[in-house]
Write a structure and sequence with these properties.
The protein is α+β, with helices and mostly antiparallel strands and about 160 residues long. The chain has one domain. It contains five helices and seven strands. It has a five-stranded mixed sheet with strand order 1-3-2-5-4. Strands 6-7 form a two-stranded antiparallel ribbon. α1 packs across α4 and α2 crosses α4. The chain is globular.
Amino acid sequence: MLFKAAEPKYKISTGLTIPFIFGAYEKLGQPFNDINHLIETIIEARTGQFPVLQRCDVIGRHIIMLEDKSVCNRSSYNYSKEYSLENSAGEKVLFIDRNSWSLGRTIERVCSNLNAEYADPILGKRFSWDNKSKKWRKFEDGEIGLIESVLRTNN
């Protein structure tokens, strides 16, 4: 994840919140129609990693983190025991950590619950969680620079 190497003020140590992902893709000119579209895109993406949906203990919000498949399959913590959503090929691809099981077991239920929780900040274009004020806020210039750096890295 490119943002993990960012400067301390904007450093993301575990994963990205749903609104952050939504807003980042909007800034990159590849907006999602809604949370369903975001989750379906994650599910259908072909990567060497598994996306894991969990509630972050530090900020108390849902995040998507990426785990190497070898980590997910190790015996000490096997993600195959977690709920998961499958892609169109029937492969388990989006694991839902125990602390987020209340979101549901189907893509429809997960998306509905995520939408209920994050529709307001997304519609208000408040994509970044401020842990000090415990509120969603608009991206700061430094965050926009990090997001735009993805384009420079991939070109």
